[in-house]
């Protein structure tokens, strides 16, 4: 005789999808308050700069600092553009693009060599790049000034490109080395089997796969080069070689009383780097989060 037993009911613990939905419904109050506080700290100064750049000099002292302009005007922007702003903008673009391109070219070759070569000399070379992070910019400005003068590059844009790229190479190499080490070794071996040389592996494999990391370091290095002030102050002199950070400092001296005009110059100088961020933000996020899921 066959007897049947009633099966026990399923466990009362909620399934995993139900538990996930419940977790999503929980409100993170401290996190939300912290986000609002951080957002206000970032947004309020930007808002003040924008509305101030649209005020006239007379209304700047009368209107509420955070209120909308009672008589908005674009005369401040027109005054900044007429003062040679396009020349300073072009100089900053040349210095930033030149420094970033030189930095990525040198750092990518160095990172590829470090990740693919296990010799002791290459390992010590990587230590030299790490040592470059410990050298402050202010400690090297006098030797750099001496070398640039001896090379005949003083008061030229190339005098800004070379030291800016040199100080950006260490951190760029470290970021690219960490990224290239995550590329599976089997991909390199398969290209070797197909007869690819070092340059072919670099161009056809490493360069496409490391695009997020390159975009990340390009934006990071570009931001530092765009905002650089010490090198333009020490290594250039004539107004024709002046870049935007130095031009803002000059605007502050020439337009000491006209605060709205200075704020208009700040807005115009920040627009290119803001557009660069909008264009490369997806690559930037992908590069910053690469390897977090491992």
From TrEMBL:
<keyword id="KW-0472">Membrane</keyword>
<dbReference type="InterPro" id="IPR000515">
    <property type="entry name" value="MetI-like"/>
</dbReference>
<keyword id="KW-1133">Transmembrane helix</keyword>
<feature type="domain" description="ABC transmembrane type-1">
    <location>
        <begin position="89"/>
        <end position="280"/>
    </location>
</feature>
<keyword id="KW-0813">Transport</keyword>
<feature type="transmembrane region" description="Helical">
    <location>
        <begin position="201"/>
        <end position="220"/>
    </location>
</feature>
<feature type="transmembrane region" description="Helical">
    <location>
        <begin position="126"/>
        <end position="148"/>
    </location>
</feature>
<feature type="transmembrane region" description="Helical">
    <location>
        <begin position="257"/>
        <end position="279"/>
    </location>
</feature>
<feature type="region of interest" description="Disordered">
    <location>
        <begin position="1"/>
        <end position="24"/>
    </location>
</feature>
<keyword id="KW-0812">Transmembrane</keyword>
<dbReference type="InterPro" id="IPR035906">
    <property type="entry name" value="MetI-like_sf"/>
</dbReference>
<feature type="transmembrane region" description="Helical">
    <location>
        <begin position="88"/>
        <end position="114"/>
    </location>
</feature>
<feature type="transmembrane region" description="Helical">
    <location>
        <begin position="29"/>
        <end position="50"/>
    </location>
</feature>
<protein>
    <submittedName>
        <fullName>Carbohydrate ABC transporter permease</fullName>
    </submittedName>
</protein>
<comment type="similarity">
    <text>Belongs to the binding-protein-dependent transport system permease family.</text>
</comment>
<dbReference type="Pfam" id="PF00528">
    <property type="entry name" value="BPD_transp_1"/>
</dbReference>
<keyword id="KW-1003">Cell membrane</keyword>
<feature type="compositionally biased region" description="Low complexity">
    <location>
        <begin position="1"/>
        <end position="17"/>
    </location>
</feature>
<feature type="transmembrane region" description="Helical">
    <location>
        <begin position="160"/>
        <end position="180"/>
    </location>
</feature>
């Amino acid at each position: 005789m066959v007897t049947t037993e009633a099966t026990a009911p399923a466990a009362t613990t909620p399934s995993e999808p139900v538990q996930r939905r419940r977790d999503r419904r929980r409100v993170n109050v401290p996190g939300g308050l912290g986000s609002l506080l951080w957002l206000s700290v970032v947004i309020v100064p930007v808002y003040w700069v924008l509305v101030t750049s649209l005020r006239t000099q007379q209304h700047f002292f009368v209107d509420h600092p955070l209120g909308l302009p009672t008589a908005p005007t674009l005369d401040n922007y027109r005054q900044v553009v007429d003062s040679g702003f396009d020349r300073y903008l072009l100089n900053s673009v040349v210095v930033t693009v030149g420094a970033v391109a030189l930095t990525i070219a040198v750092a990518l070759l160095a990172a590829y060599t470090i990740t693919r070569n296990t010799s002791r000399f290459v390992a010590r070379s990587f230590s030299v790049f790490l040592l470059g992070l410990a050298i402050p910019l202010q400690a090297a400005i006098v030797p750099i000034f001496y070398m640039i003068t001896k090379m005949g590059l003083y008061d030229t844009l190339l005098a800004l490109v070379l030291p800016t790229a040199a100080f950006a190479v260490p951190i760029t190499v470290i970021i690219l080395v960490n990224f290239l080490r995550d590329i599976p070794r089997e991909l390199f071996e398969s290209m070797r089997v197909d007869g690819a040389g070092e340059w072919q592996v670099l161009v056809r494999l490493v360069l496409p796969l490391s695009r997020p990391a390159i975009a990340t370091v390009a934006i990071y290095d570009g931001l530092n080069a765009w905002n650089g002030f010490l090198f333009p102050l020490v290594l250039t002199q004539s107004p024709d070689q002046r870049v935007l950070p130095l031009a803002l400092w000059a605007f502050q001296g020439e337009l000491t009383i006209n605060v709205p005009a200075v704020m208009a110059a700040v807005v115009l100088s920040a627009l290119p780097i803001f557009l660069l961020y909008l264009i490369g933000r997806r690559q930037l996020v992908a590069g910053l989060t690469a390897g977090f899921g491992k």
